[in-house]
Automatic annotation (TrEMBL):
Matches recorded under Pfam families: Methyltransf_21
Keywords assigned: Methyltransferase, Transferase
Coiled coil: none
Lineage start: Bacteria, Pseudomonadati, Pseudomonadota, Alphaproteobacteria, Hyphomicrobiales
Methyltransferase as UniProt keyword: yes
Chain ranges of the Methyltransferase FkbM domain: 55-222
Protein name: Putative SAM-dependent methyltransferase
Organism superkingdom: Bacteria
Molecular function GO labels: methyltransferase activity
One Gene Ontology cellular component annotation held by this UniProt entry: plasma membrane
Length: 237
């Protein structure tokens, strides 16, 4: 079922109710992800009207979102982003989710979190920050703050409802993916599917990527690839 929803002051959104199959409108698939990752997820979970996701580096309720299509299909989850004030929009547009403003990573030391004029580029990675030092006519840093990370497992301990399992982990944290993965307790929290940013990697490069090695060691395999992301599935599923 497809229902068009138009609200004053907000973009036109097509709401998908009680289904996760890809929806086609005028022969075009509806997607909110940058490269259609949400359509791949919808195909993988076809027929499932309910599910639970964890979106780390959620950034925005619908722009570049891997989980908004699922939210509109009836799924619910946890959205996490370190950008100051980012959760206000989530509370307005995704009030049935659990929305947390936090930097996810190793809590042993503080991090410098740098914000850009394009918030999708905000990062806590020094490596990524140094790679962006060349002047750009489009993107530049607008500020930085010191943050104390929380491990992913500690956040899930506090906020994940006890009666649900995690179906999808979406991870897009601008170079901090390894740190987030290492901060999880994989003996207790094992999402069925993980979609993660791997910038500009082909399939062979993705197979050799450090985050792929981390997930392989934890019982996951690469099952799908977009230009800037990779999708993994648990070996026992």
């Amino acid at each position: 079922m497809v229902e068009a929803v138009v609200e004053r002051g907000r973009p036109k959104v097509v709401r998908v109710l009680a289904r996760t199959e890809p929806v086609y409108i005028q022969e075009r698939a509806l997607t909110f992800s940058q490269e259609g990752e949400d359509l791949i997820l919808a195909r993988m979970f076809e027929g499932r009207s309910k599910g639970f996701f964890v979106d780390v580096g959620a950034y925005h309720p619908y722009r570049f979102s891997n989980t908004f299509l699922l939210y509109n299909a009836g799924w619910r989850g946890i959205n996490i982003d370190a950008t100051p004030g980012s959760m206000r929009a989530f509370e307005q547009m995704r009030s049935e989710d659990i929305n947390i403003e936090c930097f996810v990573g190793n809590p042993a030391s503080e991090k410098t979190f740098t914000c850009y004029n394009e918030p999708a580029l905000n990062t806590g990675s020094q490596v990524v920050l140094e790679s962006r030092v060349l002047p750009s006519s489009h993107y530049w840093a607008v500020g930085a703050s010191t943050v104390r990370p929380r491990s992913l497992s500690s956040i899930l301990d506090e906020y994940k409802p006890r009666d649900v399992t995690i179906d999808i982990l979406s991870l897009d944290v601008e170079g901090c993916e390894e740190e987030v993965l290492e901060s999880n307790d994989w003996s207790r929290y094992r999402p069925e599917v993980i979609v993660m940013e791997q910038l500009s990697t082909d399939v062979e490069e993705s197979m050799r990527h450090p985050t792929t090695s981390i997930l392989k060691d934890r019982g996951y395999r690469l099952v799908a690839k977009a230009f800037n992301s990779a999708i993994f599935k648990r070996n026992d599923r």
